[in-house]
Amino acid sequence: MPKARAKKVGLKRIDAAIDALVPLGFSREVVCKTIKNLLKVYGEDGWVFIEEACYKTVIEAILEEQVEETRMEEVKANDGTVSEEADNPAVETGETSRQPDTPPVVPW
């Protein structure tokens, strides 16, 4: 009886995603969970969207989840009330609303 082919360990799409995202500071568990959730949304053919732009979709999904968790913790800490900072991400980062960068007008 012929031997069964050995599985190629570490050469799957999920492994490539982990290899790309763990050095950016994301845990293996978070990467796997996020990709699993994205594949539920996009279907098994969703790898094209996941791999696009160096896993940008995965990174955005992870960061959105982290922001949501932070907001939920803040709501709990404030006895169920949402502070201005939780409603406005620009306040959290110290950013102000500003116009897009435009070159200064030089009078001639």
TrEMBL record:
WIYLD domain boundaries: 7-66
Domain of life: Eukaryota
Positions of the UniProt region annotated as Disordered: 72-108
InterPro entries to which the protein is assigned, alphabetical: WIYLD_dom_sf, WIYLD_domain
Protein name, UniProt field: Uncharacterized protein LOC109719409 isoform X2
Pfam families: WIYLD
